[in-house]
Amino acid sequence: MVDKRLMNQLKQHRRQFSVLVGLGLGGGVLAVLQADFMAKIINGVFLAQLDWAGVSQWMAALFVVMTMRSIFVWLIEVTAHSLAAYIKKSMRQRILTSLFALGPMYIKRQQTGELINVLVEGVENLEPYFAKFLPQLFTAVTVPLVVLSVAFPLDITTGIILLLTAPLIPVFMILIGRTAEQVNKRQWETLSRLSAHFLDVLQGLTVLKIFGRSIEQIQVIHRMSSEFRDKTLGVLKIAFLSALVLELVATISTALVAVTIGLKLLYYKMEFSQAFFLLLLAPEFYLPLRQLGTHFHAGMAGSAAAERIFGILSLPKSWDVKERTIPLARQQQISIAFENVHYAYDNGERLALNGVSFAIKPGETVALVGASGSGKSTIASLLLAFMHPDKGHITVNDMNLTDIRLEDWLSQVAFVPQSPHLFYKSVADNIRLGRENASLETIMQAAKNAGAHEFIMGLPEGYDTLVGEGGHGLSGGECKRLAIARAFLQDAPFLLLDEATAGLDPQSEAVIDEALSRLMQKRTVLIIAHRLSTVYKAHCIVVLHDGKQAEAGPHEELMKNQGLYSQLVLAFRGEK
C-alpha cells in the first residue's frame, strides 16, 4: 500500500510535505475546537437558557474556527497538488533521462505505445497518490491522536472504544489491499498492452489495409478494450466494496460510542455538555480513516504504475555520463582506431563483434562491407555512443572514446542514416538540428550544398513548410537530402554514412552522390555499405564476416586477392 520508492521521492520536498502534515494536524485541533464551541452553544441555549449576548462570543469563536478549518482544507488541497505536480515533473524528467541513457538499442526492443503510456498515464497516476492518498494517510494518523488526547481525560470508556475500534479500519484496508494490489497491476498491464497494440496498428495501418487485415485488428482492439473494461470494473468493485466495509465499521463504531454516552447521560453519570462534546468528536475521529479508504484506490493505482516506472529507472545504463570527464575541443581532423573490440547482445548470448581491429586516418575514407549480421551496424552504434565495447578500446585522436564527454564527441560527428527521421516541424527547423542557432541564410546554403534547395523552394511555404511526422509528404530522396543538409550545417570533422543512396531512383541517386562527394571532402569518413558500388573509391575497405575482420585494403587489391570481398562483388554484379 505504501511504496518505499515513492516515499523516497518526498526527500527533495520535505518542506512542502511537512507543511501538509502540519496543516493536517492543525485541522485536527480545529475540529476539536469546533466541537467544543458547538457543545457550549447548544448547552447554553437549551439548558442554561442563555440569550444572544451570553453565547455571542462562542458564536464568533465558532465562526472563526470554521473559517480557519475551511482555509486549512483549501491549503491542504493546493499544497498537495503543487507537491504532486513537482514530483510528476521530476519523475518524467528522470524517465526521459533514463531512456536517453539506455539509448536507441533499448528503445528498439520496447513497444513505443507502452513507453508512452508509462510517460503519460503512468506518471499521471502518481498525482492522486501524492495529492490525495499520502496526505490523507498522515492525517488519518495525526487527527485521531489529537481526538484521543482530548477524549481520554473526559471519559475513559469512550477513549477505550475509540482506541479499540480505530485499528479495525486499517486492518480491513490491508486485507482488501492484498487483493486490490493484484487487480490494479493486472489493470495497468492490460492498459499498457492496449496502448502498445493500438499505436502499432496506427503505425502499420497501410500494411494492414494492403493485406486486408484492418477489420481483424478492429476486432482485436475491441476484445482488448473489453478486457480492459472488465479489469477496470473489477478494480471499481473492490473499491466500492472496501468503501462499504469502511463506512459500515465507522458507522457501527460511532453508534457504539453514542450508545455508551447515552447510557451514561441517562443515569446521570455525565453532564450533557461533556456528552454532547464527545458525541461530536466521534465522527471527527473516524472521518480521516473513512477518507483514507476513499483514496485507497488512488494509492493502489499509483503503486501499480510505480512498478513499471522504477523498472525503467533501475535498468543498468549503457554508459554513465559521470564517467565521461575528458573534454574534446573542436578538432580539425579526426582519427579513429578499433583495438580488439568485442561486443555481444542479449547479455553476452549473441556475439556481434569478435576482436575487430582497424584504423581510420585523418581525412581518410573507410568503408565497412559484409553480409547482414556481420557487425556493421554494431560498429556504427559504438561510434555513436549508443553502447560501449564489452572488451577492447575505441580511440579518437589517441583518447579512449568511453572517457570523452558525450556532448563533445557527438558535436564532432555528422551522421547520415539510411532512413533519416524528420520531425513534425518546418523544413528549416529540421535542418537546424545540425546547428541550433543557425541563421536562415546558413541553412539555405547547407540545403544548396545538399542539392535540396530547389525542391524546398517548390514546397507551398518554402523553408517554413511543415513536414509530416517521419517525413510524411516528402519522397525518400528528399528526406535524405535534408539529412545531408543537416550534416553540411553541422560541419563536423567525422562523417558517418549508412548507405545514404539506398532505395533511390537513378536521378535522385546522382544528386545525392554529388552532394555526398562535396560533404566528404577534407573529412574523416566511415561508410557502412550494403550496395558495393558505393565503396569502390574508398581508401580502405574493411570486410567483416561473423563479427571478425576477414580482410582489408583498397578495392583493386581486394579484387586481386579473390577473397570474401571479391565473392561479394561478383554476387552483387550477378556474376559467379
Write structural notes for this entry.
This protein is α/β, with parallel strands linked by helices and 576 residues long. Helix content is 63%, strand content 11%. The protein is built from 20 helices and ten strands. The strands form two sheets. A six-stranded mixed β-sheet has the order 6-7-8-3-9-10, with helices on both faces. Strands 2-1-4-5 form a four-stranded antiparallel β-sheet, with helices on one face. The chain starts with a helix and ends with a helix. The mean pLDDT is 85.
Regions with little confidence, pLDDT below 50 for 5+ residues = none
Q: How many helices does DSSP assign?
A: 20
The first-to-last residue Cα distance is: 69 Å
In what range is the share of β-strand residues?
5-15%
Spatial order of the strands in the main sheet?
A: 6-7-8-3-9-10
Categorize the overall geometry. Answer: elongated
Number of strands: 10
Structural class: alpha/beta
Give the helix proportion (percent range): 55-70%
Provide the succession of SSEs: HHHHHHHHHHHEEEHEEHEHHHHEHEEEHH
Estimated radius of gyration: 35 Å
Mean pLDDT: 85
Largest sheet entry: 6 strands, mixed
